[in-house]
Structure prediction request, 541 residues.
Amino acid sequence: MCARTLSSVLVGATATLLVAAHAPYSSFASASPRHQDQSETYADLRATAEAHYDERSYARAVEVYERALTLDLSDDQRSWVAFRLADSSWRAGARRDDDDAIERARSELDAIVERAADTPQQGVIRAEALASLGDSYWVGRHWYAIREAWPHYRRALAWWADSSDLEVARRRYLDIVWKIAQPLVEDGYYSYPSRKEYDEFDAADVFDDALRVATEAEDRARAHFLLAAALTYREWPTDPPARIARALETGLPATVGTAWRDDMLFVTAKWMSKHGNADRYVKDRWVYVPDHVRALELYRLLLAETRKGESPHYAQAERAVKTLIRPTVDISAPRTFLPGSEIVLDLRWRNAAQVELQLHHVGAPENLDLSRARYGDGEWPRAVELAPLPLLRTWSVDTQDDGRHRHGAQSLRLDEPLPAGAYIVEATVGGPDGWARSRALILVTDAALIVKRTSQEVLAYFGDAASGAPIEGAPVTLWAREYVDPTWSWISWQATTARDGTAVFPFDASRQWGRVIVAAGPHDRPSIVSDRRWRWPDAEQ
Prediction:
């Protein structure tokens, strides 16, 4: 009758873990030395060296193992000491950035793997040497070179998968898997997408196998979390939706009462908010629909089950809840409109059953007063004082929001064309979870404004939008936001276009400037140029 192995547990697991069966594992502590009177000395030295190793005092472990090599040892004892000596040597070399020592130790480990005999004790040494080689590329000095580490880890996992000493094999197998996942666990799951090395091997299959092997609640919870993270970290998921859904659904109850509960809640909540559920298959790719209601439920559950400072995800979960429930609105005018044309605006919102809108007439662009503006490099129309401007219209839009925290959008068409001029439309939303507003500038004009600058001056050209003919005698105003430690403030200059339609403004490039806004034209032929990319001093633009 064949002995039961981990491979029999991994029915349907990845083919990379299938190798020829090995004999049962036995401890080196029971190996018989050639001379019994020296066995205690070897045992003492080994105990001392292992204690140094466990404390990560690798240089001291090397010294003790070198002393052990001078004893009359059995073949298995000598092989173990040689392995541990090479293993400790590269770890000590990594501490002092000694690349030569690391490479020498790797060469010795390779040799140990090749010369290990086909016996239970030698098989264990081979598996441990392979794991050490993997470590030397993965955990040493933050290399994280999984492409070089994985072939060694794979062979070590395969050996333990075919060991019939189930409990020892299970522990060593999982220890290797946890080590592979170490950067993920230490940095938090959210750093996982930056670990491009994980694409060098099928991480999901490795963690899935670990789940099959694990029996303890903490180990199973850890494997559930790692599997979920491996399946959900990509921007465009490639695994079947059913596999992802199953991993998330089974992982949540499996982590209750374990140290991995908050991690599992967070990875699932983030997935539901960003991707959600598979909706349809288009052009070789699944299209997902976010489930913000489920995400909100999971984030709140994380906050309810943990306290601030207990989970690395707590602060992010708090921010996510606020983002999911906070009302937002954005309104924009996609272009400048010619007189008599239909005015179409783009409106977007979230968590808003109704959007309130107001339309104000600016008149001539020079009427804009930015002197008290608090906004500069953001949405600059928010800086305009609306109170002095004529209010032309107020109305509301029923968004038909379904309360599922989804984004909504629609095009707004004004009932009638607007006379030539400059206007500001303001959209406002609000509710028990906050309020928001957005503004957009609407230009209705047949004139065009072009602005260029050098390191010494700003040149504006104002002309007819259709023919390009210059417009003489038009007022031009330039606003620039200047930083004088510790505050920002607006400064303005005025000019009038010459016969050739140009207006020139001297500009001191040695001062620190932010956004520049240039407006030209009378009230019935306005034009405004705003550019947040200008930074002074800078190259010519």
